[in-house]
């Protein structure tokens, strides 16, 4: 029997939510302010969004961010899927330490990852004669996205009935065909969730991008940081609002998919019991 939360518990939860989201709400409101003031409301206006769209440097940073995030998410998802399947098929004594190694980038400070990758690219670039740029930025994003994809897919692999793969192979399928026709459809929710998380992490990243992008490439987060060195422009409010809404939409998609998967699983479990 579930207990209803007490009024003090509700108040505490509401206070925490207000503390977390009130600054974002203020930012969104003042992105529609007609003046540059971030403290006095002067009227509703879309001028800052119009200026944002007309700013070539911001649009360039936006295109780079979307390109890097999309390509990195796709490559990391493919690599992470095969890595997860390989780890799942290993013996437990080998899988456990490798999973711990996979978790290191998740708990490691971003600045350590960024500096280490920067030193790697500089040392390799001095030998192969190239400078950090779009390519190094893409490699860095793929690197820190793969662990998130692996962690998203592993629970689906644990839920998978291994007898399905054996049955497909016994009926004449090669391993790759069984993987493509049987395993991938079963773990597809984890693959999609991993891709969405990878895309979101790439869009949000600043520290690692700052150390690996080089001189001539700038992402949105780096552009916002460079704009805050001067007097904060309301264009930053408009840009931050757009980024927040994109991430919010992705989170809604993930939660809706998860709820549908849970309902489908419950129905299948009930059907099996009958």
List keywords for this structure.
274 residues, 11 helices, mainly alpha
Structure description:
With 274 residues, this protein is mostly helical. The protein has helices at residues 7-30, 47-54, 56-88, 92-107, 110-128, 134-159, 162-170, 175-204, 207-212, 220-228, 234-273. Helix 3 (56-88) runs parallel beside helix 6 (134-159), helix 3 packs antiparallel against helix 8 and helix 7 (162-170) packs across helix 8 (175-204). The chain is globular and about 70 Å long.
Q: Please, how many helices?
A: 11
SS content category: mainly alpha
Outline the low-pLDDT stretches. Answer: none
Separation of termini? 25 Å
Shape: globular
Helix content: over 70%
What number is the mean pLDDT? 84
Task: Please give the structural blueprint.
Layout: H1 7-30, H2 47-54, H3 56-88, H4 92-107, H5 110-128, H6 134-159, H7 162-170, H8 175-204, H9 207-212, H10 220-228, H11 234-273
Helix pairs in contact: 1-11, 2-11, 3-6, 3-8, 4-6, 6-8, 7-8, 8-11
In short:
The chain is mostly helical.
């Amino acid at each position: 029997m579930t207990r209803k939360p007490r009024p003090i518990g509700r108040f505490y939860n509401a206070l925490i939510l207000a503390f977390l989201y009130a600054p974002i709400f203020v930012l969104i409101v003042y992105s529609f302010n007609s003046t540059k003031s971030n403290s006095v409301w002067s009227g509703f206006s879309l001028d800052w969004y119009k200026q944002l769209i007309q700013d070539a440097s911001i649009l360039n940073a936006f295109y780079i961010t979307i390109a890097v995030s999309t390509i990195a998410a796709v490559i990391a998802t493919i690599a992470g899927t095969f890595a997860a399947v390989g780890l799942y098929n290993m013996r437990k004594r080998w899988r456990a330490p490798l999973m711990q190694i996979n978790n290191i980038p998740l708990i490691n400070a971003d600045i350590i990852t960024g500096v280490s990758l920067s030193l790697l690219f500089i040392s390799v670039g001095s030998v192969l004669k190239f400078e950090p740029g779009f390519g190094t930025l893409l490699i860095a994003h793929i690197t820190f996205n793969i662990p998130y994809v692996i962690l998203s897919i592993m629970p689906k692999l644990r839920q998978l009935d291994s007898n399905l793969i054996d049955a497909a192979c016994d009926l004449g399928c090669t391993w790759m065909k069984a993987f493509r026709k049987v395993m991938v459809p079963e773990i597809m929710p984890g693959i999609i969730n991993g891709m969405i998380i990878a895309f979101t992490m790439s869009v949000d990243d600043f520290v690692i991008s700052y150390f690996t992008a080089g001189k001539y490439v700038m992402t949105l987060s780096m552009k916002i940081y460079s704009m805050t060195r001067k007097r904060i422009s309301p264009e930053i409010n408009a840009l931050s609002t757009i980024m927040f809404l994109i991430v919010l939409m992705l989170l809604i998609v993930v939660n809706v998919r998860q709820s549908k998967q849970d309902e489908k699983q419950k129905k299948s479990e009930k059907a099996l019991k009958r």
